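ok so I'm stuck.
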Amino acid sequence: MAPRAKFDKESYDWLNDPFDEKKIAKESAQQKSSSFAKVMLIVGCFVVIAILAGLVLMLASLAAL
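replied:
not stuck anymore, here's the structure
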């Protein structure tokens, strides 16, 4: 009986290759764009809140006249 190799081609998972540089780079880029989108969403929310607060203050000053 021949000794078994450390790397068995038939049992290796080719779809989830942990050493696939292209896949690692793609996942890293997706992670970066995902975090950028989250930051931009938060900034957008703050901008909308600032605009609404400005409108409320402007309407309040007009009502005081």
